[in-house]
Fold:
Amino acid sequence: MTVSDQHSPQQPRASVSKADELIHHHTELPTTRVSQWLDSILAAIGKSASWLWVVVTAVIIWAVVGRYVFGQGSVFLEEVQWHLAGTGWLLGLAYTLVVDDHVRVDVLHERMSLKTQGWVELLGLLLLLLPFLALAVYEMVPYAISSYQVGETSQAPAGLSHRWVLKSILALSFTLLFIAALSRLLKVTALLFGFPRPIRCETKKNKKEDAS
Structure:
């Protein structure tokens, strides 16, 4: 085995690591007391919603066994599957924003300084994300209320009733996303303008005072 052969297996690992770094790049923003409190609530909701995927898996197995073993298909179970899957996915959106673990493939953003990234985040939140989410909440809440008032049900025979529940989850999801965006906005302003006061700065200041 030559020297080049010994080092060749390590080359793909380096390229994969670099690609993973670009995709999962995080902007290190400071934490504030309000954003920390909001993030803890949103994280708890997201983690709780993740258990719905276990339920979805169980329902799918139940439906498959019923169809192919006992020859009994069920529209009810099919609709339960996508209702639960939709609920789990929608309630998990805010969590991905809180932990900044949504996919980013942006080589320009990754190479910017932290302060420049903060300005990009600030403009993106104020001009794009928050206005879109505000409009979505404004449209989705009456959408869910209307579904409840007319008693909307599934159009399929033997389907689910109370279709307004899923539409309410849709409105709730956009509301949680809006709160998560506000929390991130507080972190960005703490980075750029020092307001609200970052928790990290307070901790360092306290340590210096204790040392003196």
Summary: Confidence is low (pLDDT under 50) at residues 1-16, 18-24, 201-212. The chain is about 75% helix and 0% strand. The two ends are 61 Å apart (CA to CA).
